[in-house]
Sequence to fold (503 residues):
Amino acid sequence: SVTRYYQLTLKKVKLSPDGFERTVWSVNGQYPAPIIRANKGDRMIINVENRFGDPAAVHWHGMLQHGTNWYDGVPGQTQCPIPNDVSFIYNFTTGDQHGTFWYHSHFMAQYADGLRGALIVHDPDDPYLKEYDYEYVITLSDWHHRTTGEILPNFISPTYTGRRPVPDSPLLSGRGRYNCNGAPDGSKCKPNAPLAVYNVKKNKKYRFRIINSAADAFFIFSIDEHKLKLIESEGIYIKPTIIEKLPINVGQRYSVIVNADQPIGKYWIRATIDKRCVLINNATINFNSSIDWNGLGILKYEGSKNDKPKSKEFVENFKICRDLDPKHLTSSTQGDGIVKAVMNNSSFIPQFNDPTITKIIRHIPPEELPKEQNSLIFDNKNGIVEIALWNNNTDEHPFHMHGHVFGVMFVGEKNEYPDEKKYNKKNPVIRDNVTVPGFGYLVIRFIADNPGIWAFHCHIEWHVELGLVLQLVELPSILMNETIPNDASSLCFKNDYQKKRNP
Ligand code: C2O
Fold:
């Protein structure tokens, strides 16, 4: 293992990912943000230089941050935001983790404005290494032409109706194609923007790492006339299974192997926003009809002609807005329950100027944390924690946990705590991001082995802004005796917390 240094300069630039020009909260001037790569066991030293003109912070989605809770990047929970014109070094190891991760701003809805990119941890012992010749990363996102600074004040207002903002374009690896008909006067918009192209050679095999980095969109991913061999879900190898279409919710990641064994030509890669998940409550929503919900990219064989793909889409019907059937995702097992907790009723309100971690380290008893911080406190080292979520609404919610992977013991529709006999104790899916169905129940379990303050939240960014967040206060009696490194604690003295985001 080695130490890897990365420089991420956060700055606003004008870009046109789908042909429409807007201000993008970029990393090093790019969208999507550059891919960060490492091997398992590497130390990551990542200097984040904030030139946004706004506070910011970066979270490493899926990295467990063993012993480095203060580099998890969550303002209000694990750090104070990085003020403008200040640099902050994140310093953590990938440990024994490997697989497909991503990174994004965890400050307000800033990642929807651009600060999101792939984080790939390679595994020299990857059991599938011999099964593919090359690898590619595909990031999926939903793109808005308005900044979140413009969207949020309307969204979070006394007249809030529950409608989520509807994106203008789906993007596949940062590229999409807006038809410009809906572009307001005075804006810069070019139709037929270039799509992402993946070059392949006949009879070679390719690993595609697919990351849903959307603010809201549930995607269905597929490559015309090519089956997908699923091998990884969120950093966990799984028994290979062949699928045609991959449903992937916000925050989730998968790897598939694609065999370029079809006739030489061009084939559409499809990333379709399942609008049923966005519009489910809002049949009457007045969405912009110029939106194309079908994101596209191109799989291009060497030697193919310079024309449009004519390929055909696989037909497959899914239960709407659901994770891939868990029978595709068998991995290892877990033990028996000890602690039980159910998410409470209050809406999370962060205290950016006094994050929970600093309160615990000042020895404020965890029971005295503000009620609206939705704390789940557990202090039993190596105990098994069980969390059940009952979703009292038609919307699905992709829940993500920081600091852990968990076993998915039960998912279903039932308005009562499911009987333990129904749990999948034999081979639950192990992951960090799972969909709670509409009017559904989710039961997960994990081991309390990582002292820290860990967010557990719906990854629909608009729901985060509405407070659909809780925090695990894990092993506080250990955490309270830790020392936050100077660089991390000093941020809290540099901050001008009153300063709100610029629109
Ligand atoms: Cu992708 Cu709380 O994070």
Remarks:
- The two ends are 42 Å apart (CA to CA).
- Residues 282-286, 330-343, 498-503 have pLDDT under 50 and may be disordered.
